[in-house]
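If you are new to this repository, start here. Below is one unmodified record pulled from the training split, so you can see the exact layout before writing a loader.
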Amino acid sequence: MKTFNVKALYIYKFISQCLPIYAFYTILFIQRGKSVTDIAILIALWSVFSIIFEIPSGILADRWNRRNMLAIAAVLQGVCFIIWFFSHTFLMFALGFVFWAIAGAFSSGTEEGLIYDNLKSDGCEENFTKVYGKAHFYANIGTIVGIASAGVMVSFISIEAIALLSAAICFINVIFALQIRERNFYSEGLNEENMGSFETLKEAGAFIKGSGIALVSILFLVLFASLGGYLDEFDALIINDFQISKIWVSVILTIRFAFIALGDILAPMVQKKISSIKQIFLLGGLACIFLTIFAVLWNQFAILIFGVAFMGMAITEILLVNALQNEIKEEGRATVMSFYGIGQNIAMICFSLVYALLAGIFTLQQVYLIISVYGIIGGIGFYLLAKIVKIRA
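And here is the target side for that same chain:
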């Protein structure tokens, strides 16, 4: 059998995020009459749809073909953007999010399981942090290219046309997804054990409940390390608050994802300096200190500090996912990660609704201050929790 061709993975990840519509879909919603509250509700609905499909897709990824699921996910996301091209009503935008939610559920956990099992097959699973980090790096470089190109495109074509172009990119990426080597130790073992789908779910749940590292890793990932992901749906609104040119939407998002990509590359180096999971929690808290500084300064010239905050969150996320993957032995990896995905989507719903509530009471600057302080408290709180209960590693 040929060794794992990581280049195919990296190309797939790059193209999967090289979508110009990322920079402007919230602006598209606004141009078609949707309010900030409408957008927050749409994003919350997106998370609801994701929750519905998360566990079934995780079980399917462990029991079927993970590579094919990534290819299907690319098609479904493309369908979302086509629907948005024609959309003018709240319900049609929500329908687009249904397809995007299914696509996200199909890739959530599937990618991590596919990467780990491919590396394990070659006897080099210790390289997971490096390969997973690089995969995220290329994904974020793709995001940067997509966002930067969108900043140029919007001067020549409509946002609706950018949505169609993004759909075409998704369909092209199906070809590259199918080039990734398929390896799934869990499904191979099922041929002998003939375990039912419910047993796969039950086994994953028992693992999380019985592993201190797995439990605190997932909780911190959901509640704090994923703050960057929850916020990126609203980043374009910062530029509206600054009352500066639309080109700055691309600038702030490009800088944000450039720093996240840097964090993806730095994660294996930082891992060598981290001796315990408690220190990872502190790193997450430190990232939010930089977000606090940005919120205090609150102008476009502080965007570099904004980027550093998300770089810290990216490193925190990769190190915790690595700790989680190393804990999993015989359980279904994608199903375990589905619990993480469900937690993220529940948190995203709560976050979107709280964001909408706060935005109606406070200024946007004050909202970011509240969120950043919350992150700092989380980092310190989990550090103390891990120290008190003496979680190993």
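Two things worth knowing about this chain: The chain has one domain: 9-182+206-389. The first helix runs from residue 6 to 17.
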